[in-house]
């Protein structure tokens, strides 16, 4: 069945397509760039279609090349993972996760000890650079956790939770906000669509006139800085209920009018199709799903507890 498949040419193509470079593919395969070029030319002749657009100093995949790469990359990845399961298990297995610094700092890392307690031989490496990773091109990243309004039909995905924005502050600042105009803390997001007009939407829903009275506004580039400012008593912050959850549970922050919430986007864990079956990735997906469910349950309970206290008062 597979006797006529040009396996060496397919391997050369997968490497060149993933790296978008014949030279880089040659280095990865320990051959010359000329050898990679000849293999890909032979593959194009065998298929009868052009796979790359050759441009000065770069190459680009054609539509046919994109289709072949997506199916071939997943197939080779599955073969590599199957082979790995037959080898003697190494003492430690590494897993690379790409996400935002705020999500890693405020939600993931405080819970990561529970993952290590269950899987002590899996080491999780966090990549928190701002650039969005193309998982089909960068095989060094096993999975990503993204906060987005978009869908990713070409990736395997697990929806973790939808997000809402509320107003939080230290207990002292929340008490003072009922008596006087508070200082407002905001985040200067790189993707303004996900946070634009957040304070306006919250104030309109709450019936607060703070913005009309030209409040003192503090802006930070990252959410964890804004939350730390609120914890330090610098004002009230409009923040994600997910990212504020640990500070709420510890009592460092309390909600101001928690029944008022502004809809956000959603968090999803994503990987290249097929990679979710790799044992470390599968274990991390399962753990993430459990933690997300517990986190959502805890948030609902904390809001209900606060509302019950308000009713009793």
Automatic annotation (TrEMBL):
Keyword presence, Transcription regulation: yes
Record Gene3D superfamilies: Periplasmic binding protein-like II, Winged helix-like DNA-binding domain superfamily/Winged helix DNA-binding domain
Keywords: DNA-binding, Transcription, Transcription regulation
InterPro entries tied to this protein: LysR-type_TF_proteobact-type (IPR058163), LysR_HTH_N (IPR000847), LysR_subst-bd (IPR005119), WH-like_DNA-bd_sf (IPR036388), WH_DNA-bd_sf (IPR036390)
SUPFAM superfamilies according to UniProt: Periplasmic binding protein-like II, Winged helix' DNA-binding domain
Annotated HTH lysR-type domain residues: 5-62
The keyword rRNA-binding is annotated on this UniProt entry: no
Family as reported in the entry's similarity comment: Belongs to the LysR transcriptional regulatory family.
Descriptive protein name: LysR family transcriptional regulator
Species: Pseudomonas rhizophila
Organism phylogeny: Bacteria, Pseudomonadati, Pseudomonadota, Gammaproteobacteria, Pseudomonadales
